[in-house]
Protein 1
Amino acid sequence: MTLNHKRLLLLSAAASLATVLAVPALGADVDVAKESPGDWLTYHGTYRSYHFSPLDQINAGNVKQLKVAWMHQPGRSTRGLQSMPLVADGTLYYSGSYSRVFALDGATGQVKWTFFPKLDDDLVKAQTHSPYNRGIALGHGKVFVGTVDGRLIALDMATGKQAWDTKLIDSKKLTVGFTGAPLLVKDKVIIGAQGGEWPWRGPIFAVDANTGEKKWEFFTVAGTEEAKATWGNESWRTGGGGGWMPGTYDGQTNTVWWGTGNPAPLYDWAGPKWKTEGPRPGDNLYTTSVIGLDPDTGKLKFYHQELPHDAWDFDSSVGEFVMIERGGRNLMVHPNKSGFVFVYDRSNGKVENVWRLVQNINFVKDIDPKTGELVGRRDMVEGSHKNLCPAIPGGISWNAGSYNPQTNLYYKVGQEWCMDLDVIKTQPILEPMAQLNIGANFKLTNPEGGKAYGHVSGRDPITGQKKWEVKFDEPPLASLLSTGGNLVFVPDARGILHAYNATTGEELWSHNNGIGHVGGIIGYRAGGKQYIAVMTGWGSLVGDEYAALFGGPYPNMANDTGAIVVFALP
Amino acid sequence: MNQFGYLSISGLALAPALLAVAVHAQEAPRTEVPPGAQTTPSAAPHSTLAVDPNISRLFATSCGWCHQGGGRVAGRGPKLAGTDKSDEFISRQIKQGKPPGMPAFGKSFNDDQIRAIIAYIRALPETP
C-alpha cells in the first residue's frame, strides 16, 4: 500500500467517523416522513397511522418467552400514564402527567434527561381533562409537548433543555389547554386544544418548529363564514369542538387530516327541532367532523361532518387516520366515537363506506354507507330517555387500534354499553368561561338483555368484515399494537397485557402489570434487539366509570400511579 | 316520566335550610355559610317546596357529568344524595376541587351558587 493509499484510507476513515459523529447520538435528524422500522417517530407510528411495528424478532413462535426487560417509574402518574412513547435511534422519549418528559436509553431504561415544566397549579386543578398528557412529537432536533395551561414547549432532543415555550391559549379565561400529542409536519408543529365540553372554539394551532412562532390557528368552531352560519343565535362563541387528539399528514396531497370534538352543550333539549331551536341551532360546523387542512396556511381544503349537530357527545376526535390502498384507490379509515367507522377517499374527503364496529347503537337507525347521511336520528327533547346506545364514553374511545399490512386486518376495541339520561333545559352559556357545559344528567347502564362488555376484533378495515373477535368483561381502554411477528398486543383494563396471534386471535401470552392500562404501546429496536413498551396506570375519564358500572377491582384501583414497562426476549 | 328533571323535583324531600340559604343569599351575597344553614339529611323534614330550577340547570350544566343521575347515583364521581359531609366540607370540595377528577370550581361558581348547590344536594332523596 502506498503512502497515498494509506492517506486516502485514513481520510476515508476520518470522514466516516466524522459522518458518524455528525449524527448526534440522540437522533437530531429525525425525519418523520421516512419509514424507519426500528423507530416509533410519531404518535401513530408513522403518518400511515398503522400502530404497527414491522419487527419480527418477537413472534408468534417465541412470544411465550417474553419477559420484563426494564421499567421506569416517573412518579406523580396522576390518572395513569396515558401517552404514547416515541423512539428514535435507540432512545425512548415519553411524557407523563403534568407534561413531564423523560428520555431513556431504549435498551436499559437508563435516564438520559428529564424535563419537569412549571405549570399553573390553579389551572391544573380547575380542569376536568387534567393533569394527564397523551404524548409528544419529535423532529428538528427537538421534542415537543403541550401543557394543560395552554402552552407548547420545545426541548432539545440531546439535552432536554428548553428551546422555546409558546403560550397559545388564555387558559385562565377558557379553562382549556393541551393534553393530546402534537404532530410534526415539515417545519411546523400542529396541536389541537382539548375539550368539547368547555365553551370555546377548539382551535388547532401550527407553530414554527424552530422558533416557536405561531404560524396559524384554525377554529374548529365557525372557522369559516360558511361554518359560522351553522350556529344560530351566535352560539359559535361557546361552541366547544376541541380537536384534542393528533391526526395525521398525507404527503401525497399535502393535507393534514384531523378529527374535531363535539359541540357544547353536549345534549340539546331542542330535540328534532335542532335546526332552528335550542342552545346551538344548526349543523354546528366544524364540530364532530373530519377536516383536511393545508399545513402551510391552515386553510380548510375539505371536510366531512360525521354527525351533523352532534347531540350525543360522539365526537370525531379519535386521532386515527389509517391510510389504506385498495383497488388503485387511496383510502382513509377513521373511527368515530359513536361506534361507526368511516372510510374516505383520500383525495377529497368523500365518504366511501361506513361500517359498525359495535352492536349496541340506537342513537341513529343507521348511517348511509354510500353518503354518510344519518338515518333515523334519535334527537332527545327535555326530559327522561332510557337506553341510549352507546353510552357517553362511546362505542369507540380515543386510544388507537392497529392495522397490520401483513394480515390486512384492522384490530380495534369496541365498547358495548348504554345509558339513561335526563336532558335538562340549561341556561345557554353565551360567553367563553370557566364552566363545563353538559346539558343532562345521566347514568351508564347495561345493554338491554345483557351486560356491558368490550371486544377486540380483527377486521377488514374497508368493509368491516370480521375475521376474529375476543370478548372482555370490561372494554380495554388502551391502544393496541400489531407486529411483523404476527402478534397483536392488547393491554386490558384490569392490568393484563395479552399477546394474540394476529391471524387467528388465539391468545399466546399474557403478563400482569398490576394495574389497568389507559395509554400507548409501541415496538422498537435498540442495540439490535426488539422491545415492546407499554404504559400502565389507571384513572381516565372513561375509566372512572368502571367502579360504578363493573365493580370488581375498579373501586379501589389506584389512580395516582403508573410506569412504563418494557418487554424483550431473554 | 321525567325522573331526574327539575320539573319533577317539587315532590322531593327538602331541607328547610334551603329557604334559609336562599333568603340569606338574597340578603348577604358572597358571604360564608352561616352556622344555621348547616344541615344533615336526618334533620330534614319533608316539604313540598321546589328546588330552585336554576340550580337544577346549573347542576346539569357542570356537575352531572360526573355526579350521575343528578347526584343520586355513583358514576365517575361519588353519589351525593345522603352524604354525611358537612356544608363546609362540600363547599371546600367545590371551590378547591379534589385531584384527580374533581375540578376546582371556585372561579366558576360564586358563594350563592355553591350554597344553592349544597341545598340541592341536601334535597336529594337518599335512595334513587
Note: Chain B has one domain: 6-30+40-123.
Protein 2
Amino acid sequence: MNHFLRLAFFALIARPIALIVLGLNLRHRERLPLNGPAIIAANHNSHLDTLVLLSLFPLRLLPKLRPVAAADYFTVNPLLAWFSLNVIGILPIKREAKGGADPLKPCEMALERGEILVLFPEGSRGEAEVMGRFKRGIAVLAARRPEVPVTPIFLHGLGKALPKDDPILVPFFCDVFVGEAMFGNPEQAVFMTELTTRMHALANELPRELVVEMSLRQEEN
Amino acid sequence: MFSVLTPNAAAFLAGIFGILLIASLIVFGLKRAHPEKDYDELTSRVNSWWVMAGVFAAAMALSPTLSLIFLAFVSFLALKEYLSLIPTRRADRRVLFWAYLTIPAQFYWVAIGWYGMFIIFIPVYLFMFLPMRMVLIGDTTGFLRAAGSLHWGLMLTVFNLSHMAFLLVLPLDVNPAGGAAGLVLFLMFLTQFNDVAQYVWGKLFGKHKIIPKVSPKKTWEGFLGGILTTTLAAWALAPYLTPLVGWEAPVAGLLIGLAGFVGDVNISALKRDLGIKDSGSLIPGHGGILDRVDSLTFTAPLFFHFLYYLHY
C-alpha cells in the first residue's frame, strides 16, 4: 500500500464523493468499531460501497482498513490491480483455492495485525438494490476468531447512484445503517441466520414504501 | 451585481446573529431551570441555525459569486434529496443526470442576468427536453409518473429556489438602502421567521386544526398569528432592506406568510404520500434540506414577482 497516495485519494476524492456528491444518511454511528481487529459485513451493490464504508471511519484508521476483494477480479488487469492494491488497499483473496490452500488465511493474518476487514458476504455486487444470499466464508472466519466483533452495515441507494452496468454516477442520498456487533459461533448456520436477520432488521428501518419496493424486487429475482 | 453589503444589510445580519444569541441563551437557561427535561432536539435545532446562518452570512459577505454558488448548492441538495425520496426508474438514470445539469445552467443564466432565459429554461425547454430523453430511452411503463414527478421536483427545487438568486442580480440603483443582499436577507429572514412565528403561536394558543389530514399539528391560531407577526415584521424591515413603500411592505409580509404556510404543507403532503416523517437527516434537529427550504420554494418566486412587477 502507498500510504500517502491512499490518504490523498480518500481525503480529496473518496470522501468528497461520499459526503458531498452523494451524501450519507448515517444511522447508529456509535456502533462502528473504534479500533481493530474488527470485521465489517455489508451488502454489496456498487463499487461505491467500498468508498463509502471506508469514509465512515476517521482518516487515522485508514491504514488499518482493508476491503477484502476477489483476487481473480481485481488483480487481472495490471492497472486495476495497482490501483486496488496501492490506493484502495484491498486484501486480495483467492475465491477458488488451488491445492487445498486456505482462502481465509490472509484475512486471519490481517486480523492478527489488528486490521479492520471490510467484507461483502454476498461475494459480488449482483443486481442493484437486491440483497443476495450471504456466503458462509464470514461465518468460518468469525468462528476461528470468536473474540473479533462483526459489525453488520446495511447500505441502500448506492446501487442507484452507480450500478454495475452503467459508468455514469448519478447523485443520490444513500442510507448507511450500522447494526450491533456480533461474534463468531462454532455453528456456522446459527451465525449466518443471525447475520441475515440483523441485516434484514436494518433494511426494515427504511421508510415503508422502500421496504415494500425492495421486497418486490427480491421476489422478481 | 452587488459588491459589498450595504450598512443596512450588514446591520441586519448582525441583528440575526443577535437573535440567535438570545435563542441560545434561552435554551441554556431552560436547561439550567429544568435539568430533568430533555432539550437535545431544541439544542441541535438552534445549533443548526447557527451553522446555516453562519454559512449563509459568510457567502453573502464575501462575494456575489460565492452567494450564487451557495444558493446553487442548496438547490443541488434539495433536488438530490427529492430524487432520493421518490421512486425513480432504473431506465431514467441518464435523464436524472441531465436534470442535475440544469442547476449550473439555471444559475449561470442568473449570474449573467439573462432574465428571459432564466424564466423559461426549466418551465419550457426542460419540460420538453427531459420527456424527450425518456422517450428516446423507450421505457413507457410508468412514463407519466416519471416525467411528471421529475419536472415537479425540478420546478420546486431548482426553478423556484433560483428566484432567490435572481434577487442578487437586480439593478442596484432601485434599492440603494438594502442592496441586492438586502432583498435576499428580507425574503430569507421573513420566511424562516414566519415558520418560527407560526410554530410559536400554535404552541401557545393552538386549538383549532387547520389542515389535519396533511399536517395534524398545524392550527388556525398558529397560522393567523404567524401571518400577523410576519406582516408587521415586513412593515418594520422593508424601508431598510427593500424598495417597497407604503402598503407594499405589509402586503409583501402577508404574501410571505401565506405562501410560506402553503409551501410548508406542500412538502408535508409529499412526505405523507411517501410515508416518511423527515425528508432527510442532513440538518440535525430540523430533518432534511427540504424540511428547511419547504416554505422558501413558495415564498421565493412569489416575493420575487411581487417586487419585480412593482419596482423593476
Note: Chain A touches chain B at residues 23, 25-27, 128, 157, 160, 163, 166, 168, 170-174, 207-209, 213 (CB under 8 Å).
